Amino acid sequence: MFGTLDEALWRNRLRAKRGKSSQKRRFTLFLVSSHGDSKSLSFGARAPRIAMACIFMAILSLFLFIRSYRAHALELRELRYMRDVAESQRQQITELEEQFSELNSRLQQAEVLGSEIREMLDREGLAPQSFSPAFGPPVSPRALRTTNRAFTTTIRNISPADMGRTLYVLRENADKLAGQTVEVLERTRDLHDKAVQVVAKLRSTPSIWPVRGEITSEFGWRRHPLTYAREFHEGIDIGASSWTPIVSTADGVVSFAGYKYGYGWTVIVTHDYGFETLYAHCVRLEADKGDEVKRGDVIAYVGQSGTATGPHVHYEVRLWGTTTDPSKYLPKDILEVDYNVRQD
After folding, report:
1. Minimal CA–CA distance to 100: which of 168, 188, 175, 165?
2. What is the pLDDT of residue 114?
3. CB–CB of 266/282 below 8 Å?
4. What is the pLDDT averaged over residues 106-124?
5. Distance of alpha carbon 11 from its chain centroid, rounded?
6. DSSP character for 281?
7. Which of 34, 176, 198, 276 is most buried as measured by Cβ atoms within 10 A of its Cβ?
8. Residue 91 in domain
């Protein structure tokens, strides 16, 4: 009897335990306000797990988002850096193009000065046949633009890794070339100034025959052809036919044009560097006082005005007011005179 009763109790407990364990567990959360109001939230046993899973996914998503953001931010910084480098290199290329353009401009100036030097020396017969400008012909703007485009294309074809070094080397070479070009231009300008001075002195120095003819009376002491008195002849007499053109033997300004006692119709030309020339016994004057004349300009015509025994030109050269032998300034050969008839 007792065994049967214990077995029945044991079975009832087992059923109650199974029934209790088979029921779903639920949790209730009470929320009470300061006013005494309360609310309750009831949820099953799986809800915390789901909440934890959601929180984990949210944290994981946030981590992935932050990681992706940092990667994009790094890429953006790199892109900005590359953009800044590219802009800097573009500016350097532009500056190099401008520097090369400036170098070409300086070379053009040197070329122009060299051409002027050659022309000045050629006019005076001083330039040797082997003389040539120190520089090639100036580069035209079109050729310069083509060169700049080729330069830019070449630069842009260089790999980015070599771009910085290439621009650095080009900048160094361009700076050196700029310094050399400035030095060459300064030397050329100095040479041009010296050539101008030399040519100006040569143009102011009597150096040609005033007329084609023979010297009939030398410079120095002689017997006057009319009075036979001993006198100092301050010039030379060059015999020529009447109305033969008389030319200025150097560049200068006519300081006198008129009649002088004993000299007849006379022209006096004042030159730079202390020179003065006189042309006397003319039949007609072509130049007036104050006229600027060049070497070879016709200033008068041969005659025998004043004290003269025949048509000739009395020619004097004075240096700083002192008469000097004109023969020293005449070429050995009497060459054909290129007469420059004045057109007033």
Report:
1. 175
2. 81
3. yes
4. 82
5. 116
6. E
7. 276
8. yes
Residue 305 has pLDDT above 70, yes or no: yes
The pLDDT of 23-46, averaged and rounded, is 64
Same domain for 171 and 262?
A: no
Give the per-residue pLDDT at 140: 47
Provide the residue range defining the domain that includes 220.
Answer: 214-329
300, 286 contact by CB (below 8 A): yes
Residues 176, 179, 185: CA angle, nearest 5 degrees: 140
| Cα distance between residue 68 and residue 72, in whole Å | 6
Residue 80 shares a structural domain with residue 200: yes
Count of residues making up the chain:
344
Rounded to an integer, the average pLDDT of 142-146 is 50
Mean pLDDT of the chain: 79
Same structural domain, 168 and 224:
no
pLDDT at 186: 85
- Tell me the CATH number at 242: 2.70.70.10
Is residue 310 situated within a structural domain? yes
Quick one: which of 250, 285, 241, 297 has its CA closest to 270? 250
Q: CA angle at residue 329 from 323 to 333, to 5 degrees?
A: 140
Distance (Å, rounded) from C-alpha 66 to C-alpha 84?
Answer: 26
Residue from 281, 283, 285 nearest 264 by CA: 281
- How many domains does the chain divide into? 2
* Cβ contact 121:113 at 8 Å: no
pLDDT in tens, 245-268: 999 999 999 999 999 999 999 999
